[in-house]
From TrEMBL:
<dbReference type="InterPro" id="IPR012296">
    <property type="entry name" value="Nuclease_put_TT1808"/>
</dbReference>
<keyword id="KW-0540">Nuclease</keyword>
<dbReference type="InterPro" id="IPR011335">
    <property type="entry name" value="Restrct_endonuc-II-like"/>
</dbReference>
<keyword id="KW-0378">Hydrolase</keyword>
<feature type="domain" description="Putative restriction endonuclease">
    <location>
        <begin position="20"/>
        <end position="191"/>
    </location>
</feature>
<dbReference type="GO" id="GO:0004519">
    <property type="term" value="F:endonuclease activity"/>
</dbReference>
<keyword id="KW-0255">Endonuclease</keyword>
<protein>
    <submittedName>
        <fullName>Uma2 family endonuclease</fullName>
    </submittedName>
</protein>
<dbReference type="InterPro" id="IPR008538">
    <property type="entry name" value="Uma2"/>
</dbReference>
<dbReference type="Pfam" id="PF05685">
    <property type="entry name" value="Uma2"/>
</dbReference>
Amino acid sequence: MSTITALSQLDPNRPYSYADYLTWEFGEWVELLGGQYSVFSSPGKSPTHQQVVSRIGMQVAERWNDPAYETWSLPFPLILGYEELENSYNLVLPDVYVMGKHPPNYLDDRGWHGVPAWIVEVTDARTEETDRTAKFNLYQYFGVREYWIVSPDKRQVVQYVLDSNGRYQLLAEKSNSGLAHVQVLSGLEIDWDEVFA
Protein backbone atom coordinates (compact mmCIF):
# COMPACT_ATOMS: atom_id res chain seq x y z
CA MET A 1 0.00 0.00 0.00
CA SER A 2 1.33 3.45 -0.89
CA THR A 3 1.88 6.09 1.75
CA ILE A 4 -1.08 8.39 2.27
CA THR A 5 0.11 11.99 2.44
CA ALA A 6 -3.16 13.83 1.72
CA LEU A 7 -6.72 13.47 2.95
CA SER A 8 -7.89 13.28 -0.67
CA GLN A 9 -6.12 9.90 -1.03
CA LEU A 10 -8.45 8.22 1.47
CA ASP A 11 -11.18 6.03 0.02
CA PRO A 12 -14.55 6.97 1.59
CA ASN A 13 -15.90 3.50 0.76
CA ARG A 14 -13.43 1.39 2.70
CA PRO A 15 -12.95 0.94 6.43
CA TYR A 16 -9.71 2.06 8.02
CA SER A 17 -8.16 0.68 11.19
CA TYR A 18 -6.14 2.45 13.82
CA ALA A 19 -3.07 0.70 12.35
CA ASP A 20 -3.87 2.38 9.01
CA TYR A 21 -4.29 5.72 10.76
CA LEU A 22 -0.79 5.45 12.25
CA THR A 23 0.71 5.40 8.74
CA TRP A 24 -1.01 8.55 7.47
CA GLU A 25 1.26 11.52 6.88
CA PHE A 26 -1.06 14.50 6.57
CA GLY A 27 -1.91 17.27 9.00
CA GLU A 28 -5.68 17.07 9.27
CA TRP A 29 -7.30 15.55 12.33
CA VAL A 30 -9.69 12.70 11.64
CA GLU A 31 -11.92 10.46 13.70
CA LEU A 32 -12.62 6.82 12.91
CA LEU A 33 -16.16 5.68 13.65
CA GLY A 34 -16.49 2.01 12.84
CA GLY A 35 -13.64 2.38 10.36
CA GLN A 36 -15.21 5.28 8.48
CA TYR A 37 -13.11 8.41 8.64
CA SER A 38 -14.57 11.80 9.48
CA VAL A 39 -12.61 15.04 9.14
CA PHE A 40 -12.30 16.84 12.43
CA SER A 41 -11.54 20.55 12.38
CA SER A 42 -10.77 21.96 15.81
CA PRO A 43 -10.01 25.44 14.43
CA GLY A 44 -13.52 25.37 12.91
CA LYS A 45 -15.13 25.16 16.34
CA SER A 46 -16.88 28.33 17.47
CA PRO A 47 -15.60 30.51 20.32
CA THR A 48 -18.70 29.51 22.32
CA HIS A 49 -17.87 25.82 21.81
CA GLN A 50 -14.31 26.35 22.98
CA GLN A 51 -15.44 28.36 26.01
CA VAL A 52 -17.88 25.67 27.11
CA VAL A 53 -15.30 22.89 26.71
CA SER A 54 -12.70 24.94 28.63
CA ARG A 55 -15.11 25.79 31.45
CA ILE A 56 -16.17 22.17 31.92
CA GLY A 57 -12.55 21.02 31.90
CA MET A 58 -11.52 23.72 34.39
CA GLN A 59 -14.31 22.81 36.79
CA VAL A 60 -13.28 19.17 36.74
CA ALA A 61 -9.61 20.08 37.29
CA GLU A 62 -10.30 22.60 40.06
CA ARG A 63 -13.04 20.83 42.01
CA TRP A 64 -12.48 17.11 41.66
CA ASN A 65 -9.40 15.05 42.32
CA ASP A 66 -9.33 11.29 42.23
CA PRO A 67 -5.87 9.82 41.67
CA ALA A 68 -7.40 6.80 39.94
CA TYR A 69 -8.56 8.97 37.00
CA GLU A 70 -7.26 11.51 34.51
CA THR A 71 -9.26 14.17 32.70
CA TRP A 72 -8.52 15.01 29.07
CA SER A 73 -10.00 17.42 26.62
CA LEU A 74 -9.94 18.23 22.97
CA PRO A 75 -8.00 17.32 20.92
CA PHE A 76 -6.39 14.35 22.68
CA PRO A 77 -7.23 11.10 20.87
CA LEU A 78 -9.12 8.23 22.43
CA ILE A 79 -8.78 4.80 20.83
CA LEU A 80 -11.88 2.98 22.04
CA GLY A 81 -11.61 -0.61 23.18
CA TYR A 82 -8.81 -3.09 23.71
CA GLU A 83 -8.32 -4.70 20.29
CA GLU A 84 -4.99 -5.05 18.52
CA LEU A 85 -4.17 -2.00 16.39
CA GLU A 86 -5.12 -3.67 13.11
CA ASN A 87 -8.49 -4.69 14.57
CA SER A 88 -9.32 -1.34 16.16
CA TYR A 89 -11.63 0.82 14.06
CA ASN A 90 -12.67 3.56 16.49
CA LEU A 91 -10.64 6.65 17.23
CA VAL A 92 -12.50 9.68 18.57
CA LEU A 93 -11.63 13.16 19.79
CA PRO A 94 -14.12 13.81 22.59
CA ASP A 95 -14.45 17.32 23.95
CA VAL A 96 -13.90 16.12 27.54
CA TYR A 97 -13.36 12.63 28.94
CA VAL A 98 -12.36 11.04 32.23
CA MET A 99 -10.31 7.86 31.97
CA GLY A 100 -9.50 5.37 34.70
CA LYS A 101 -5.73 4.89 35.03
CA HIS A 102 -6.03 1.15 35.52
CA PRO A 103 -5.37 -1.73 33.11
CA PRO A 104 -6.45 -2.57 30.53
CA ASN A 105 -6.67 1.20 29.84
CA TYR A 106 -3.31 2.65 28.90
CA LEU A 107 -1.75 5.87 27.67
CA ASP A 108 0.89 6.23 24.97
CA ASP A 109 2.27 9.12 22.91
CA ARG A 110 -0.69 9.01 20.53
CA GLY A 111 -3.57 8.91 23.00
CA TRP A 112 -5.54 6.88 25.51
CA HIS A 113 -6.52 3.31 24.69
CA GLY A 114 -9.54 1.87 26.46
CA VAL A 115 -12.93 2.96 27.71
CA PRO A 116 -13.51 6.14 29.73
CA ALA A 117 -15.94 6.39 32.62
CA TRP A 118 -17.46 9.64 31.34
CA ILE A 119 -17.50 11.48 28.00
CA VAL A 120 -18.83 14.95 27.21
CA GLU A 121 -19.49 16.09 23.66
CA VAL A 122 -20.26 19.77 23.14
CA THR A 123 -22.38 19.76 20.05
CA ASP A 124 -23.02 22.29 17.31
CA ALA A 125 -24.92 22.28 14.04
CA ARG A 126 -22.10 20.42 12.28
CA THR A 127 -21.68 17.65 14.89
CA GLU A 128 -25.13 17.28 16.45
CA GLU A 129 -26.29 14.32 14.36
CA THR A 130 -23.01 12.44 14.89
CA ASP A 131 -22.99 13.15 18.64
CA ARG A 132 -26.62 12.03 19.08
CA THR A 133 -26.49 8.93 16.89
CA ALA A 134 -23.11 7.50 15.80
CA LYS A 135 -21.19 8.49 18.92
CA PHE A 136 -24.12 7.69 21.21
CA ASN A 137 -24.23 4.15 19.76
CA LEU A 138 -20.44 3.80 19.76
CA TYR A 139 -20.03 4.90 23.39
CA GLN A 140 -22.92 2.67 24.45
CA TYR A 141 -21.41 -0.31 22.60
CA PHE A 142 -18.02 0.11 24.28
CA GLY A 143 -19.52 0.60 27.73
CA VAL A 144 -18.78 4.26 28.47
CA ARG A 145 -20.74 4.47 31.73
CA GLU A 146 -21.97 8.06 31.37
CA TYR A 147 -22.36 10.26 28.30
CA TRP A 148 -23.35 13.93 28.25
CA ILE A 149 -24.35 15.93 25.19
CA VAL A 150 -24.06 19.67 25.79
CA SER A 151 -25.81 22.13 23.45
CA PRO A 152 -24.49 25.68 23.99
CA ASP A 153 -27.09 27.16 21.61
CA LYS A 154 -29.92 25.64 23.67
CA ARG A 155 -28.00 26.06 26.95
CA GLN A 156 -28.84 22.44 27.66
CA VAL A 157 -27.15 19.25 28.86
CA VAL A 158 -28.58 15.77 28.26
CA GLN A 159 -27.24 13.07 30.60
CA TYR A 160 -27.24 9.36 29.76
CA VAL A 161 -26.15 6.60 32.13
CA LEU A 162 -25.47 3.00 31.15
CA ASP A 163 -27.88 0.54 32.76
CA SER A 164 -27.20 -3.04 33.85
CA ASN A 165 -28.09 -4.27 30.34
CA GLY A 166 -25.47 -2.04 28.72
CA ARG A 167 -28.05 0.42 27.32
CA TYR A 168 -28.10 4.16 27.83
CA GLN A 169 -30.97 5.50 29.87
CA LEU A 170 -31.87 9.18 29.84
CA LEU A 171 -31.06 10.47 33.32
CA ALA A 172 -31.81 14.18 32.89
CA GLU A 173 -32.24 17.05 30.48
CA LYS A 174 -31.11 20.17 32.21
CA SER A 175 -31.32 23.72 30.92
CA ASN A 176 -29.57 26.95 31.75
CA SER A 177 -28.51 26.68 35.37
CA GLY A 178 -27.89 24.66 38.48
CA LEU A 179 -25.67 21.71 39.28
CA ALA A 180 -25.42 18.46 37.35
CA HIS A 181 -23.83 15.50 39.12
CA VAL A 182 -21.72 12.96 37.26
CA GLN A 183 -23.38 9.78 38.48
CA VAL A 184 -20.45 7.43 37.86
CA LEU A 185 -17.74 9.62 39.44
CA SER A 186 -18.40 10.31 43.10
CA GLY A 187 -18.21 13.96 44.10
CA LEU A 188 -17.95 15.39 40.59
CA GLU A 189 -20.51 18.02 39.67
CA ILE A 190 -20.69 20.73 37.03
CA ASP A 191 -22.13 24.18 37.68
CA TRP A 192 -24.00 25.25 34.54
CA ASP A 193 -24.32 28.86 35.71
CA GLU A 194 -20.55 29.05 35.28
CA VAL A 195 -20.37 27.00 32.10
CA PHE A 196 -22.95 29.15 30.29
CA ALA A 197 -21.88 32.49 31.87
